[in-house]
Amino acid sequence: MALAAVFARLFGDDPPIEFRAYDGSRCGSSGSPAAIVVNSPLALAHLAAAPGELGLARAYVNGHIEVLGDMYTALAAFPSFRVSDIPWKLRAELAARLVGYRFWWPVQPPPQENRGNSGRRHSKRRDSESISYHYDVSNLFYEWVLGPSMTYTCAVFEHGDATLEQAQYAKHDLVARKLGLTEGMRLLDIGAGWGGMVLHAAEHYGVRAVGVTLSRSQAEWAQRVIADRGLSELAEVRHQDYRDVPETDFDAVSSIGLTEHIGRQQLPSYFRFLRGKLRPGGKLLNHCITRPDSSYPARTGKFISRYVFPDGELEPPGELMSRMHDSGLEVRHEENLREHYALTLAGWCANLDRNWDKAVAEVGHGRARVWRLYMAASRLAFERDQIQLHQMLGVRSEGTISPMPLRPDW
What is the value of pTM for the model shown? Predict the structure, then answer.
């Protein structure tokens, strides 16, 4: 049976995207905005070795499957189905067909795949390895993807035609205003990345800001920028685990994009630790990706866990809010910004496409493909409410009237 015929049996005779295969078969309209091309029998060997998203990802990262046109357009047009939707007879035929490929065309995972870090899950050493795997890729690569802000978290678009840089500035300023930052305050920013929040707080609010990150290359980049802007007396980004920060009595703590790496079992100690860093009346802004509900596991799928964020876990917003309250942090405001993350990812995808040749030369074809696939898929997931982005503002109120305004003033 020709490969295109298999595709047609799975998705219908007139799929919204074009499908081409190395055996010369094809289906779908040649004028489709995107096309999936199976370049080699090795693509089917990957599917035989790891059916589902992992096998498809391996085949794409290795170049045995190609996506022509915009990746997001291809993923959005691709019919959504589950294995259980495929009739048993067709599933048996597919399994029988793939067995031969697995036997005659043995394959290995691409070298970009993380097969698991050593040590106890979410120990300091293992967390350091996981963060280094994703973030210590190349600062130059991230500059091309993220743009001048070097901010790798959800932006806030105050209007639909805002640029990515404007939206990242708006995000940092929203966090600063929610925290009530004023000149002379002390801010701890955990998971500081390339120092975006630390720089914003010091430069625009006169705040003494300390940031920590497990990525050495991020910390070194941030320290250079801090020095270049003449902010060394106010701002610092350290290569340090947040659990090793010795200072206390901060007026505010920001955690922007870190909680996804914490793990459910560590949430109580995480929030207790952050509360302990605050002075009475101090505020915590927790900004992180979540899953919409508790109906599916917290741990990310095989593609994300092996190629993007090892040991990543997404909790539902209610779980985070409960753990904050349990630790003595009174939640005073919460909002879901998932559409904003879809817009942010659209900007990053456009940046990667614009700088594709340079990105491939810097980090290699396989790793560039990982980023192209995961960012487009994540954009679609935010649009479809499969994942969300929540900001939660908590106060160490000590059982008294809190320092919060009667109504939000940001």
Answer: 0.92
